Amino acid sequence: MTTTTLVLAASVCGAVLGAGTRSVLVGIRRPAVPRSGCCEVATAAGLAAVAVRWSTGHVPPAWSPVPAALTVLAVALGATDLMQRRLPNVLTCASYPVLATALAPWALTGRAGATVAGALLGGIAFGGAHLVIHLVRPRSLGAGDVKLAGALGTVLGVLGPPAVLLAAVMAAVVTLALAAGQALLGGRRWQDGVPYGPGLLIATWLLSVTPEAGLVT
């Protein structure tokens, strides 16, 4: 299968999954309703990027389900947090089994012990660090952010300790960029604070599709 064909197939799958994501967001309690086409385009673009990285040999085949799953989760959770500044339990809790399933193929390539250990330690470390911040300054970091950090930490832990630290820095940079954008545009959407979830999701996704950075090999 050529790269072009693979990218087109991934884009179509992304559009379908994006439509499903939008339906889920509409159906949850206090529904977030993104503009028509936003979820479809975002998911299609994300999966197309994963397909390009995979087809060019930058992402190992057994690892590719991880950034693919992160793409879908990032669209669903990111859209909700950007629109409502909240991360619903139904989505954050679902991210744990989704990412565990996505990590399974990587574990089955002879890395079961390292994958399980990395996922557990990463989830505890990344989630625990955010829990401490939440307990000290609950208004700056919500409980949903803590749950999401724990789930994403499982992926970061498998990538390695540098990824855990780098993700924290990248998430902070994205959050600062959102705050700066709101200040420059004079927006008032996030009067109670800038959402942190999108930063976590973007950072983890970027690290998952760049294994040549010395993480997953």
Automatic annotation (TrEMBL):
Keywords: Membrane, Methyltransferase, Transferase, Transmembrane, Transmembrane helix. GO terms for biological process: methylation; signal peptide processing. It comes from the Bacteria. Residues 69-175 form the Prepilin type IV endopeptidase peptidase domain. GO terms for cellular component: plasma membrane. The chain crosses the membrane at residues 87-108, 114-136, 148-180. It holds the Pfam family Peptidase_A24. InterPro entries: Prepilin_IV_endopep_pep, Prepilin_peptidase/N-MTase. Belongs to the peptidase A24 family. This is Leader peptidase (Prepilin peptidase) / N-methyltransferase. It comes from Haloechinothrix alba. The lineage of its organism: Bacteria, Bacillati, Actinomycetota, Actinomycetes, Pseudonocardiales.
